[in-house]
Hints:
Blueprint: E1 10-14, E2 20-24, E3 29-33, H1 40-73, H2 76-88, H3 99-110
Antiparallel strand pairs: 1-2, 2-3
Amino acid sequence: METKFTPGPLRYYKDHNGRFHVCAGGTDDLASLFHPAINPGTMEGNARLFAASPDLLSELQAAHLIIRNALNLMSPSAMEKWAKWNERDGVIGEGTTRAFEREAAITAALGAKS
Length: 114
């Protein structure tokens, strides 16, 4: 089964009632975001993140391939140095390149089973 979602670009806007809307192309809303107990700044941040999600997924998928390509060009000593730098910078995951974490995020976004 093919996973489908609305491709970007998406945009968001705030209506005259203070509700945030995410739409594709014209003004057909994909989602309306409002909750009286949530700070409007937080709601705007949620709308902004929702609108950016197709681009974020596309860039994550591209980064995943770029990192794999880079690994294929690296010597073992370069990979070891990279791992040490990632650990130093607090971005180490299950592996040197966080491939498992990226794959899990991509899988979750596409709705595929892991």
